[in-house]
Give the backbone structure.
Amino acid sequence: MTTYTAHPIGPAALKELRDTDDAGRPLAPLTDEEGGAPLRCCLRRSEPGERIALVSYAPLRRWAAGTGAEPGAYDEQGPVFIHADACAGPAGQELPFANAHRTVRRYSAEGHILGGRLVSTADAFDEAFTAAFTDPEVALVHVRAVEYGCFLYEVRRG
């Protein structure tokens, strides 16, 4: 069985997002009174009382900037929660946010969507990632929430 690693939003991108998000808006921190927000900086749910922010993030655009890909119309941005201040990042290697239906969306090296797979149970992720990366055309996958389509994290080949 292959182990796949969930990649949070990277430190350099987080630093930029805490200044101005990918839609050009300044950070608007808030105190999370209830907790439970899926944080993309450390890949865990927020705790009550933590300072978080909802920012606009363009994961494919940022990946493409580093690879030279041109995703064209597939470039999208959407809302993600992050800590308003720097955090330590993920604490472990467990696959995060695996307790609900998710979509494993596949992308080519050009940044074009190659398809996706609905994952209904936590134990089905490994099979979905293996199927995706068996295809040599797949460069990376995004795991997304089904209910809103929001980006949760990225998984890359190797």
Summary: The chain has a mean pLDDT of 95. The two ends are 13 Å apart (CA to CA).
